[in-house]
Amino acid sequence: MSLSPLSTSPGPAAPAAVPPPARTYSVAIAGSGGAGVMTAGTLLLDAAARAGLYGLMVRTSGPQIRGGEAAALLRLGPQPVVTLDDRFDLLLAIDWQNLHRFADEIPLGEGSLLVGDVDAGEAPEVLRRTGARLHALALKKTAKAAGGAWVNMIALGLAGTLAGVPAAALEAALRASWRRSEESLAPNVAALLQGVAMAQGLPGERPDPLLPRTDAPAGRWMLSGNEAAGCGALRGGVRFVAAYPITPATELLEWMAPALTRVGGTLLQAEDELASVNMIIGASYGGVPSLTATAGPGLALMTEAIGLAVTAEVPIVVVDVMRGGPSTGIPAKSEQSDLSFAVDGLHGDAPRLALAPSSIADCLTTTEWAVHLAEALQAPAIVLSDQFMGQSRAVIDRPPQADAAARRLTAPAPDATAGAAVPAYQRYLDTVTGISPMAVPGTPGTVYTADGLEHTERGIPSSQASDHRKQLDKRLRKLEQHDYGPRWADIEGDAELAVITFGSTTGAVREAVARAAVQGVALRLVSLRLLAPLRTEALAQALQGVRQVLVVEQNHGGQLLRYLRSRFDLPGRASGLHRPGPLPLRPGELCAAFIEWAAAHAPQEITA
Amino acid sequence: MNDMVLAAPLRAADYKSDYKPIWCPGCGDYTVLSSLTKALAMIQRPPHEVAVVSGIGCSSRIPAYTTCYGFHGVHGRSLAAATGLKVARPDLTVIVTGGDGDGYSIGGNHFMHACRRNVDLTYIVMDNHVYGMTKGQASPTTEPDWDNKLSPGGTGIRAFNPLVIALAAGANFVARGFSGDPNGTAEIIAQAIRHPGFSFVEVMSPCVTFRPEQKQWKDLVREAPVQATDDPALAARRLMTDDGFNIGVLHAGNRNPYPTRMGRTATSVADLESEFEL
Amino acid sequence: MKTTPQTLDEFMAVALAMENEAVDRYSEFADMMEAHNNGEVAAMFRTMAGYEAKHAQQIMAEMGWQSAPAVPRERVCWPGYESPEAAPIDEVHYLMQPWHALQLARAAEQRAEAFFGQLAAMTTNDSVRKAALEMQAEEAEHVALVTAWMAKVPQPDSDWSEDPDPPRHVD
User: Which residues, including other chains, have CB under 8 Å from residue A423's CB and lie 6 or more apart?
Assistant: First the structure.
């Protein structure tokens, strides 16, 4: 369905012909009880990387801690992959145990391939109904025959080959990962190659190889969003972390534990989130950039202390790896439902920074940026990551180094030899920028008491109207007047219809926008990276010429839509496209929705 | 209801729901669940008059596996929720369950005050010296040198001693059980429920997935070599030299439980309002 | 102070309690295996629970009991914490294979056989001794049956418990 603008008023030029997005291959490897599907998935991603491709791997599993049903969901292609596709090209199931539970997460269609073990019985009805082409192969038997190799090696060879990943890359990935004895490696390599042969022998299936970019940059990385955020924190200068385990943030903290020690920092496990957030405030008060990571329930516990960081003007970074909410919610699934809380959820008038990375790679750069901002503005920063990015792995281009290091404006020791009386240090001095030099304990002549009580410029508690006004204005002004540069949002295109989003949905939205463009529907994309403070002037500029906006997000209440409406005059009649977790928003359904929305908002033809 | 009619006695199976636990096969919590149902069968309170309150973690999954009223709350606050429930509804039997992470780390503060307050509750902690549900971090009862990802090389911090803390804070009943002895643990739990005031039962319950070495516990536990005492000072001295493997009731005290206040008087609101009249 | 059963009734009550604990334990194992997608072993444990239930019913029928009589604590004279016939809870593994289940069952029957033998040797009551010897002989038969069954089932490879995937978060 194509749509051409009918407006007679001069507007932006029609979009240039857009090539369709590069072909990708989506594969799901599923199984239970020791099948090793996660390992197979990780190796496949690694192999794809070795072959010069990019990829994204998402994990899903049942409620058991060991041995339950699980699936590794991958998408591979020549360009960085940031979202899953609408359909899987292949579902390879080592067994069918409880796989029907994943039917929603592994959509198949008539063009899909459904491969199972010939000895595992019939595929579940819900999967057969999709019309996918069925093949039953002797997976377990072949593994056994190959000298007792693991069946996931067959799966790796089979899936990898169908995906178009060269056998050499698959083998290289396996060899590089091997931690056991040399003797046990050989049968597994043999099994891998058997899997490759099985794929090549499948009747009627001739997969095209996925062609890597010729200009793929050197030195790419493979990591999870949690690891990326941890690394970004270190790059930003964090050297103290207080930690309390919570799904899905724990791996971020576990990655940082040894890493911090190596760079001369330290991580301390706290008794709970109240302790961890107060610990990092203490450390930061002492002059050390500090961070913690948590999820919704933990963030809720931290709110009082975040308010303390606001009032006492102590920089901290809290990474919130969002999961299904509210309350205990759905711990192992993703959602974008902590936005309202992050931008507003403190008692009193408490301005704070809230940022949202939009991809696994961006988890690194945005966390680093958050550290810089927190330090420069002496304020708490909440980084809204999510389970989808945090616990998924991707191949990314080497992240660029930041332009400048984090700098906290510190108060130097006053010159005691000057002779004249040294003025009393004013920790909360009202300056033009709102940022006051912050003394580092141990420095003579700048002693002060940090306080959550409202205070004078000297830091003495005060209930005076003028002091309260001055400090409230200062704490707001320092955030509002800062020059955040172009990173506050990604703005793409210049169409009259704009789609606004944030966080991990950005990848799916961007792909949907590209698909819509191929169908003649031009859309402008705005992905917000800095959510608080909201850059209203910059947003107004970004939306110049826009008639209507559609706000896309993964939550039930349309939190971003409500937030934008409450702070900003959106053009036209803003609409929201929001759906809660656990299922991700996919490009196909978004594209269809965008096209329908665009048609509903086609400009009226003006008759003379 | 005609209470002269004797219904068939309730069996342990009557306290177990149809929900199949998701705990790893081999987990000690299976037998603790069994002990709890056996203990309730000894008490013979109908399941609908019993409430099981828990926090977050593997052990905290227990309420739904029973046929009692259940409350699966947030991490570490089960004692607070249970206290509210019991004080508002003194007629119910309230059991609190959870793990060592939930109970002694984030729940530490509430643990201390629950012992002190001495509300008639029974608190069963399934202690496996690890955070199981979040994949293996040290808990307050973990040995200082246990290597794990969040604290490489171990925390280096002395392990928490919950029985000593409970006693010092005023718990009226302090006992230790072992999941490998389900019948013995059932007896201890039944005794704990019957005992007035705050009854604390720490059950050693090995984690097969993250602490497989705990299989050795069955060779190390023993019946406490002395009888339970009602003298807190004597109990404290014993506990200070306890090596963590004595099973049985260690202290059964005589403190008065937190008094029941609900429903004691029934002045009408209208009568109260008379104080405002001119 | 634990003592051996003093009368035939007491003895049969103890024997019945042993069978019932075994039924419960095998059923529990079957549930665990089902929840962890180990259907083959789950089915075996169900079968074992069924056998034990039959033995329990036999005892009830012989004694004319409608329900299991309570056993006083002092008469529970098992050597370990649990019924000799109930396999300890930590002896199962989510990846266990049929051979392991049979090994577990055989050990249980052997413990039961040993227990009855000891009881027969220790008791001073003739009817109790006679009953204990009969039970011992029955358990010996069960051991033989399970051993024969084991021969028909493939032995697990040395790496049967290896799982390349790490444990998972769920809460």
Answer: A414
CB-based contact, B209 to chain A, within 8 Å: yes
Domain boundaries, chain B: 11-276
User: What confidence score (pLDDT) does residue C73 get?
Assistant: 79
Phi, psi of B213, rounded to the nearest 5 degrees: -65, -15
Nearest to B20 among C24, C31, C81 (CB): C31
Query: Which residues sit opposite A393 in a β-bridge?
Result: A57, A224
What's the start-to-end Cα distance of chain B, in Å? Answer: 49
The answer to whether A525 and A492 are in contact (CB under 8 A) is yes
Backbone angles phi, psi at B215, to 5 degrees: -60, -25
Q: What confidence tier does A2 reach under pLDDT thresholds 50, 70, 90? A: very low
Q: Is B232 on the interface with C (CB under 8 A)?
A: no
Separation CA B142–CA B151 (nearest Å):
11
Show the domains of chain A with their CATH numbers.
Answer: 25-200 (3.40.920.10), 222-396 (3.40.50.970), 409-482 (no CATH), 486-600 (3.40.50.920)
Locate tokens 């590089």: which residue? A176
B66-111, pLDDT tens digit by residue?
A: 999 999 999 999 999 999 999 999 999 999 999 999 999 999 999 9
Q: What pLDDT was estimated at residue A324? A: 97
Two tokens at A146?
């190959």
What integer pLDDT is reported at residue A14 of this predicted model? 44
**Mean pLDDT to the nearest integer, B134-156:** 89
What's the distance, CA C23 to chain centroid? 7
Q: Which residues in chain B are contacts of C90 at CB distance < 8 A?
A: 26, 28, 180, 206, 208, 215, 218
Preceding amide of A19 cis, omega within 30: no
Question: pLDDT > 70: what percent of chain A?
Answer: 95
- What pLDDT sits at residue B262? 85
C165 with A37: Cβ contact below 8 A: yes
Which of C163, C169, C170 lies at the smallest CB-CB distance from A34?
Answer: C163
The pair of structure tokens assigned to B255 is 């403190």
Which residues of A lie inside 8 Å of B (Cβ-Cβ)?
63-68, 243-247, 250, 253-254, 257-258, 261, 267, 269, 271-273, 297, 327-328
Q: pLDDT at position A13, please?
A: 43
Q: How many CA atoms lie within 13 A of B224 on its CB side?
A: 23
Is the CB of B103 inside 8 Å of chain A's CB atoms? no
Count of Cβ atoms closer than 10 Å to residue A38 Cβ = 22
Contact check, Cβ <8 Å, A243/B149: no
Collect all residues of chain A within an 8 Å Cβ-Cβ radius of residue C39. 97
> Does the beta-carbon distance from A247 to B74 stay under 8 Å?
no
Q: How far apart are CA B198 and CA A535, in angstroms?
A: 55
Task: Note whether C95 contacts A67, CB cutoff 8 Å.
Answer: yes
CB contact under 8 A, B106 and A272: yes
At A213-265, the pLDDT tens digits run 777 788 899 999 999 999 999 999 999 999 999 999 999 999 999 999 999 99
Average pLDDT across chain A, whole number: 93
pLDDT score for B78: 96
Banded pLDDT at A19 (limits 50, 70, 90): low
b (16+ CB within 10 A) / e for A60-92: bbbebbbbbbbbbbbbbbbebbbbbbbbbbbbb
User: Is the predicted pLDDT of residue A6 greater than 50, yes or no?
Assistant: no
Whole-number Cα distances in Å, C3 to B185, B218, C10, C11, C79: 21, 23, 11, 11, 12
Global ipTM: 0.90
CB A67 to CB C36 under 8 A?
yes
Homologous superfamily of B11-276? Thiamin diphosphate (ThDP)-binding fold, Pyr/PP domains (3.40.50.970)
